[in-house]
Specification:
The chain is an alpha/beta fold. Helices cover 25% and strands 26% of the residues. It has helices at 23-31, 46-63, 117-120, 178-190, 203-215, and strands at 13-16, 36-40, 68-72, 87-90, 95-99, 109-111, 126-129, 134-142, 147-154, 156-159, 164-165, 194-197, 222-224. The strands form 3 sheets. It has a 6-stranded mixed beta sheet, with no helix packed on it. A 5-stranded parallel beta sheet has the order 1-2-3-12-13, with helices on one face. It is elongated, with a radius of gyration of 21 Å.
């Protein structure tokens, strides 16, 4: 016996972006079975997202198919800065410096968008860059300059604004940035159905966002994205 849609508990989530935001493709995604459409607030403007929300609602109405909208907040993602030539290739065994100083990246150094880099990342820490495609190990620290002197352990390519992760290292960065708060208020005003919080570390992160939601008189469920080791 086929399970009725009203009893379905598993959600099929599809991300809506520049390549999937035309009426024809959006209709095909919903007809293929997507029940929740994700808007990634790491990219795009509020105008872009508002246009997509209206398109989703209109398409779902025309298909007579209920579709939820998931607002995925960017969160405090730590990134590399920009390189003078756009990218570099590092080899295993190379020395490389990460710093909180606003330097232009070269073959030997790149800035990282976290002020307390040298204070909180210890010697021996493993650092993953670009979703783990490149790895390095901290060998020395210069706290006066805000530098981590590292050794490349997994070779690869580094380019502008790639993500930096510190598995097993507790950082004092909060789960919600000022941008996230602005985006959250926008999403609530637009009537999103779910909110995803990125880089959750502890229960307090969820308590904070739920209190913000409650303060607006809304009751929107929150999805905790488990992307950090301490979570």
């Amino acid at each position: 016996m086929q399970l009725r849609d009203s009893l379905r508990r598993t959600k099929i989530v599809a991300t809506i972006g520049p390549a999937t935001s035309s009426p024809e493709i959006l209709k095909a995604i919903i007809e293929a079975g997507a029940t929740t459409l994700r808007l990634n607030f790491s990219h795009g403007t509020h105008t872009d997202h508002q246009r997509n929300i209206r398109l989703i609602r209109q398409t779902a109405f025309e298909l007579n198919q209920p579709v939820a909208i998931l607002q995925d907040l960017q969160g405090p993602k730590i990134r590399l800065g920009r390189f003078e030539n756009g990218s570099i290739v590092v080899a295993k065994g190379d020395r490389f410096t990460l710093t909180n100083r606003p330097v232009i990246g070269t073959q030997d150094i790149s800035c990282v968008t976290y002020d307390y880099l040298a204070e909180e990342v210890p010697i021996g820490a493993k650092i993953l860059l670009d979703d783990g495609r490149v790895e390095m190990l901290v060998e020395e620290i210069n706290r006066d300059k805000g530098d981590l002197h590292c050794r490349i352990t997994v070779a690869g390519k580094l380019s502008n604004n790639k993500g930096v992760n510190f598995p097993g290292v507790y950082l004092s960065i909060k789960a919600m940035t000022d941008k996230d708060r602005e985006d959250l208020m926008f999403g609530l005003d637009q009537g999103v159905d779910w909110i995803a919080l990125s880089f959750v570390r502890n229960p307090q992160d969820l308590i904070e966002i739920k209190e913000l939601i409650s303060s607006t008189g809304k009751n929107v469920p929150v999805v905790a994205k488990i992307e950090k080791h301490e979570a």
